[in-house]
């Protein structure tokens, strides 16, 4: 078989993926970039308006509110989810009888569909009858109105985000199981306490996993949509929970401003890119690779 | 060519031909051989959807040329627009009245006026406010499927005996406020036990507060959110929030159950009065049939007696999207729905009033809502208020809803909230006129 023939066969095998990429990813990407410079409203011919959509974004108060909400949410949800996932993964890494059951139980919430999750939490966080407030009252606290008070609604979403940490937990668990046992044995010989082993062995050894999970969590948080959309339609109360993706959706499908929504999509991409690059830059000093 | 290659080629050919033949059958719109199929997308599910299905079945039985394929679709508005953009819209779509002019501005609708005139459906056929809300000049964008008017529902067992009938219930806002002050109950810690009236319940018509105080939200054709009447309405709303405490109101409302459940605050007696639509009676019949209640027009400001008998109107409507393939047949179905017997049957089953000018006595007598005559009168009132005929209305409504929440939660004063909303709307209005609105 000559090399030309081999190449042809190779391309033929790769063709389904290439076609899928071009038609379902590359074309929509380019189309949305072009659309972001137009006033496309689905049924009318798009008109080229240059940078107007991007300029409008900079002075759009609702956009700035949604952006601020999203960044605050990210700032709360990513660290909370990361700490919780690592802590749970460490617990699940212990050698205890019936561990498979605990692992399955802690991963289970991840399998609950987003809308079902949101509906469930509407009841859990209900100010009057909610499970959480009943528990808080039981131990003598005067609990807030999680869903109706603009000061607390964002916190509700941040707490709910922690519910979905099972996916990250599983990846951390895999990372923890890769940490060589001889490092802990050496530390034991040196008289290291559990916290020292965590601080100087476990965390450095799983730091590449932490970096990966943090970047994925940042991307997921900036794009958060389903849970706030179901729990707080329109970003109620008083747009305190109005997220970037919700405003993008409303512009695209409620107001049919596809050009403006596309511009928002590209701004979102740039924000994610910037935060990812920042995380990678920060990681240079803190992430330890075994090959280093 | 090697035998393996020949076999592979043959398989590819069979699959291609098969897809071409069977694929056409799979995606075909034709549902009944020998009849023209009209595809109808409707938002309704459950009981409401079933009642509309009965109408569709009756139409399909009434003749043998057209078959209406009825599909219950979630997000029918957005999907209709996208399907129109893709060149394959339904022939009939059931959307909400508030969206009609937004769709029209996008060029998404077919003008029904020539077909309506030919079918004898004119402004005189309908209660004027319902027809006017769907037309501009000679153009008619939609026809009603079921309409509604909105009134104040009252629990006689929760108000003093002297106010416990439609004839003696307060007529003005000031009297309603005084009654609410008298009967509302709060615990020593400020938590609410029962509210005489709450502007934030059920919270579906925040755009309507200004007009209920006499405001025109499109004064001189320009969106006006901070006009004096709207500011006054929002000050009145803030009054309730201040009176009870914003926190107390939020906590109280968070315990309200869904309106379509026995935990509905009106049915459980958490509120003594509630602004709600004609359909409320249906839910009361289902969840608490023994409940005593009556309805009155929403009170008016004492110094604006000219607003007496006002009501907010809403409608579910039928449209023919632009690009629909069976326009003539689609309209034939819409015209069937407008027939008095069909319309009265559907509206009665949905617990709504009829949009038609002529109503049979049997409709009133057999209607599940005992106060149906009042809701019919409210729709006919010269003070009936319907959503503004502007494609920009959904933005105005959204900004007013946000301003309401800002005021109700005590985040901003009414003037601040409405001035901020106006500033946002001014920018959006400019863009809307430049980019979307019809010239």
Give the gist of this structure.
With 292 residues, chain A is mainly α.
Explain this structure.
The complex is a heterodimer of chains A (292) and B (439). Chain A is an all-alpha fold and 292 residues long. Chain A has helices spanning 3-35, 52-59, 61-92, 99-107, 114-124, 131-138, 150-163, 166-177, 181-189, 194-205, 207-222, 226-231, 244-254, 258-286. Chain A has a single domain (52-286), classed as MetI-like (MetI-like fold). Chain A is globular. Chain B is an alpha+beta fold and 439 residues long. Chain B has 2 domains: 33-148 and 314-385, D-Maltodextrin-Binding Protein, domain 2, CATH 3.40.190.10; 150-312 and 390-435, Periplasmic binding protein-like II (D-Maltodextrin-Binding Protein, domain 2). Helix content of chain B is 45%, strand content 14%. Chain B is built from 18 helices and 14 strands. Chain B has helices at 3-27, 46-62, 76-85, 100-105, 113-118, 128-132, 173-183, 209-212, 228-244, 246-254, 265-268, 280-287, 327-338, 340-350, 361-366, 372-380, 393-408, 414-435, and strands at residues 36-42, 66-72, 92-96, 135-136, 139-140, 143-154, 185-186, 192-194, 218-219, 222-223, 273-277, 294-296, 311-319, 384-385. In chain B, helix 2 runs antiparallel to helix 14. The longest helix of chain B has 25 residues, at 3-27. At the A-B interface, loops of A face helix 3, helix 10, helix 17 and helix 18 of B.
């Amino acid at each position: 078989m000559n090399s030309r023939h081999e190449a042809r066969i190779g391309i033929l095998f790769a063709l389904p993926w290439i076609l899928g990429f071009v038609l379902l990813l590359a074309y929509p990407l380019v189309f949305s970039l072009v659309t972001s410079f137009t006033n496309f409203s689905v049924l009318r011919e798009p008109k080229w308006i240059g940078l107007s959509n991007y300029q409008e974004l900079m002075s759009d108060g609702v956009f700035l509110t949604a952006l601020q909400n999203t960044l605050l949410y990210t700032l709360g949800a990513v660290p909370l989810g990361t700490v919780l996932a690592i802590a749970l993964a460490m617990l699940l890494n212990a050698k205890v009888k019936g561990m498979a059951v605990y692992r399955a139980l802690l991963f289970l919430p991840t399998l609950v569909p987003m809308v079902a999750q949101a509906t469930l939490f509407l009841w859990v966080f209900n100010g009057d009858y909610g499970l959480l407030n009943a528990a808080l009252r039981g131990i003598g606290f005067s609990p807030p109105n999680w869903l109706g008070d603009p000061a607390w609604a964002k916190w509700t979403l941040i707490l709910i985000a922690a519910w979905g940490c099972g996916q990250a937990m599983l990846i951390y668990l895999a990372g923890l199981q890769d940490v060589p046992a001889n490092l802990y044995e050496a530390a034991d010989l040196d008289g290291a306490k559990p916290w020292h082993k965590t601080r100087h062995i476990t965390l450095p050894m799983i730091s590449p996993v932490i970096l990966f999970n943090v970047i994925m969590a940042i991307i997921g948080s900036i794009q958060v949509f389903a849970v706030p959309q179901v729990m707080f339609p329109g970003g109620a109360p008083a747009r305190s929970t109005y997220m970037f993706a919700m405003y993008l959706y409303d512009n695209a499908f409620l107001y049919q401003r596809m050009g403006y929504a596309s511009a928002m999509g590209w701004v979102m991409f740039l924000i994610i890119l910037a935060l990812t690059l920042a995380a990678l830059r920060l990681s240079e000093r803190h992430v330890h690779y075994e090959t280093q | 060519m090697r035998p393996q290659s020949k076999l592979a080629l043959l398989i590819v050919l069979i699959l291609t031909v098969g897809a071409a033949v069977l694929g056409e059958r799979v995606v075909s719109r034709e549902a009944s051989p020998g009849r023209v199929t009209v595809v109808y997308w409707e938002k309704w599910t459950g009981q409401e959807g079933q009642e509309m299905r009965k109408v569709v079945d009756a139409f399909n039985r009434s003749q043998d040329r057209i078959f209406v394929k009825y599909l219950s679709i979630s997000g029918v508005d957005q999907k209709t627009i996208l399907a129109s953009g893709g060149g394959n819209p339904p022939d009939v779509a059931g959307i909400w009245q508030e969206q009609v002019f937004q769709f029209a501005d996008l060029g998404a609708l077919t003008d029904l006026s020539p077909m309506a005139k030919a079918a004898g459906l004119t402004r005189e056929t309908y209660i004027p406010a319902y027809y006017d809300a769907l037309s501009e000049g000679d153009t008619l964008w939609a026809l009603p499927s079921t309409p509604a008017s909105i009134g104040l529902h009252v629990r006689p067992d929760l108000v003093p005996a002297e106010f416990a009938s439609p004839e003696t219930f307060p007529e003005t806002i000031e009297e309603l406020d005084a009654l609410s002050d008298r009967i509302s109950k709060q615990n020593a810690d400020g938590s609410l036990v029962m509210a005489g009236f709450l502007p934030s319940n059920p919270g579906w018509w925040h755009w309507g507060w200004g007009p209920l105080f006499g405001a025109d939200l499109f004064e001189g054709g320009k969106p006006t959110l901070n006009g004096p009447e709207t500011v006054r309405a929002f000050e009145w709303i803030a009054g309730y929030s201040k009176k009870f405490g914003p926190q107390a109101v939020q906590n109280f409302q968070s315990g309200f159950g869904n309106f379509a459940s026995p935990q509905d605050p009106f049915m459980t007696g958490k509120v003594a009065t509630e602004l709600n639509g004609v359909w409320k009676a249906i839910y009361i019949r289902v969840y608490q049939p023994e409940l005593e209640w009556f309805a009155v027009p929403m009170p008016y400001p004492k110094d604006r007696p000219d607003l007496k008998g006002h009501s907010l109107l809403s409608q579910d409507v039928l449209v023919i999207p632009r690009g629909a393939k069976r326009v003539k047949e689609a309209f034939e179905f819409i015209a069937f729905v407008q027939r008095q017997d069909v319309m009265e049957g559907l509206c009665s089953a949905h617990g709504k009033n009829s949009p038609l000018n002529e109503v049979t006595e049997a409709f009133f007598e057999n209607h599940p809502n005992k106060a149906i005559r009042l809701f019919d009168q409210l729709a006919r009132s010269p003070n009936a208020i319907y959503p503004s005929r502007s494609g920009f209305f959904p933005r105005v409504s959204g900004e007013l809803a946000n301003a309401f929440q800002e005021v109700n939660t005590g985040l901003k004063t009414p003037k601040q909230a409405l001035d901020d909303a106006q500033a946002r709307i001014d920018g959006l209005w400019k863009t809307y006129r430049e980019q979307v609105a019809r010239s």
